[in-house]
Design brief:
Chain A: It is found in: Cell inner membrane; Cell membrane. Chain A: It comes from Modicisalibacter muralis. Chain A: InterPro entries: AA_ABC_transptr_permease_3TM, ArtM/GltK/GlnP/TcyL/YhdX-like, MetI-like, MetI-like_sf. Chain A: One of its GO terms (molecular function) is L-cystine transmembrane transporter activity. The complex is a heterodimer. By secondary structure, chain A is mainly α. Chain A contains nine helices and no strands. Chain A has helices at residues 6-17, 20-47, 52-65, 68-82, 91-117, 120-128, 133-163, 175-186, 189-218. Chain A is flat, with a radius of gyration of 21 Å. Chain B is α/β, with parallel strands linked by helices. A six-stranded mixed sheet of chain B has the order 6-7-8-3-9-10, sandwiched between helices. In chain B, strands 2-1-4-5 form a four-stranded antiparallel sheet, with helices on one face. In chain B, strand 7, helix 6 and strand 8 (192-195) form a beta-alpha-beta unit. The longest helix of chain B has 16 residues, at 172-187. Classes of the chains: A mainly alpha, B alpha/beta. The interface between A and B is medium-sized, with 23 and 28 residues.
């Protein structure tokens, strides 16, 4: 067994850090778009809007029921063959699209559960003082639903960050793609991949810390 | 001041409110009694439009609403004129006592935050919870929560406060402080429509007691009259049962 080439690993870190922004950009864009879409889907589900509700169920079923990698290949390699406008789509856009659709399906269900979980009597209390549905959603229901949803949504964000590594299969040189290239050049596969693994791990740990801070803040109102 | 005519509510085949007629004068304190499931709560909930009635007319002040074709705007206006106190308090869990009281003023009446908070502080003073301004519902006792619930209703400056069994979920030790606050409001001639099983409260402060059964008002009158010589057999039987459990009512 060869000794671990620490110098190579330390030298690799700054190189890989250069690709971190792209990874994070895809993750943040995917997260934000997924969040918006998930909120819309959740509202359709909560209000059981006729027609849209059935479509939403189908949407969620499909995007939860198929692997993200299959969806990415479908968007990047498959769809352009059917719709020629999509031939312009690049790997980054396809990845963001895939992350958005895939994770919005999961997030919609946890947001729906969080909204439904807010005590019905508080909704009635808000109505009784004369609030409109929009007002009571904004002031009473959503703040409380957010508190319930934050831990799961943060988990999805963590998942999204790691899932951006799949962009490498669409030819995008992000954190994972760059590592692959570096490793292929140096033949130090173990060093390269353990380095990138530690980097992903570090980002996720940082986010977990943010998550704990957020939760503590949201829970202030519920201390006995 | 408040006139309810032919108010009817059905759940499926069951008629829970059967063409209720009721007039309430300004400053009148009315207590509604009766067996469970006879529509007492539904009456209150229909007046506040938490349930949509199937028929009837509700007039509060100069606002008259035909419940079958009430428009959204009318419903909001009706709710603003009728405040509600819930059996389980239903405080906003994400807001402090102060914010619970100020919330409606800010969102519905469009008051500025400082003005609404100043009013909320006055109300906290009146309900004896000035020191709990920044406490969240989870950290308050049931009695304190219900007093904030009443404070929230007071803030609305509604023409009538509807109390839906306000002491039924409370541990016995907290019942008196809530009834005490309600009595205080009664002395200030706040118009109130109260559903309760507290016969002592009814006897002490009600101007009129209604006995409901089967979705109808069976009989009504001043408490001394209704309690001492009820006319209907159903009233007599109900009072016998309930007074047997509430010895403290007897002077």
């Amino acid at each position: 067994m060869n000794v671990l080439d620490i110098d190579y690993m330390l030298g690799l870190v700054p190189v890989l850090l250069g690709y971190l922004p792209l990874t994070l950009e895809m993750a943040v864009a995917g997260m934000l778009l997924a969040l918006v879409l998930a909120c819309l889907l959740a509202v359709v589900r909560v209000l059981e809007i006729p027609g849209l509700n059935a479509f939403t169920l189908l949407f969620i079923s499909f995007f939860r029921g198929t692997p993200l990698l299959v969806q990415l290949f479908l968007f990047y390699y498959g769809l352009p063959q059917i719709f020629s406008v999509l031939t312009q789509i690049n790997g980054i856009t396809a990845t963001i699209m895939g992350l958005t659709l895939h994770f919005s399906a999961y997030m919609a269900e946890s947001i729906r559960a969080a909204i439904v979980g807010v005590d019905r009597s508080q909704t009635e209390a808000a109505l009784s003082v004369g609030m409109t549905n929009a007002q009571l959603m904004r002031r009473i229901v959503l703040p409380q639903a957010t508190r319930v949803a934050v831990p799961t949504l943060m988990n999805y964000f963590i998942d999204i960050i790691k899932a951006t590594s799949l962009a490498f299969t669409l030819g995008v040189t992000e954190l994972m793609g760059a590592t692959q290239k570096e490793a292929a050049g140096s033949f130090l596969y173990f060093e390269a991949f353990i380095t990138v693994a530690i980097m992903y791990w570090g980002i996720v740990e940082l986010l977990s810390w943010v998550q704990r801070r957020l939760e503590a803040r949201f829970n202030e109102a519920y201390q006995r | 001041m408040i006139a309810i005519q032919g108010l009817t509510k059905r759940f499926g085949d069951a008629t829970v409110l059967d063409a209720i007629d009721l007039n309430i004068e300004r400053g009148e304190i009315i207590v509604v009694i009766g067996p469970s499931g006879t529509g007492k709560s539904t009456l209150l909930r229909c007046v506040n439009f938490l349930e949509r009635p199937n028929a009837g007319r509700i007039q509060v002040g100069d606002l008259s609403v035909d419940t079958t074709r009430a428009r959204k705007k009318e419903i909001l206006e009706l709710r603003r004129r009728t405040a509600f106190v819930f059996q389980n308090y239903a405080l906003f869990a994400n807001k402090t006592a102060l914010e619970n009281i100020a919330e409606g003023l800010i969102v519905v009446n469009r008051w500025s935050k400082p003005k609404a908070h100043a009013r909320a502080r006055e109300i906290l003073e009146r309900i004896g919870l000035a020191d709990k301004a920044d406490a969240y519902p989870a950290s308050m006792s049931g009695g304190q929560q219900q007093r904030v619930g009443i404070g929230r209703a007071m803030a609305a400056q509604a023409e009538v406060i509807l109390f839906d069994e306000p002491t039924s979920s409370l541990d016995p030790e907290w019942v008196e402080e809530v009834l005490g606050l309600m009595k205080q409001l009664a002395y200030e001639r706040q118009t109130m429509l109260v559903v309760t099983h507290e016969m002592g409260f009814a006897r002490d402060v009600a101007d009129r007691v209604l006995f409901m059964d089967g979705g109808r008002i069976v009989e009504q009158g001043p408490p001394e009259e209704l309690f001492s010589k009820p006319k209907d057999e159903r009233t007599r039987s109900f009072l016998r049962k309930i007074l047997a459990n509430q010895v403290e009512v007897q002077p």
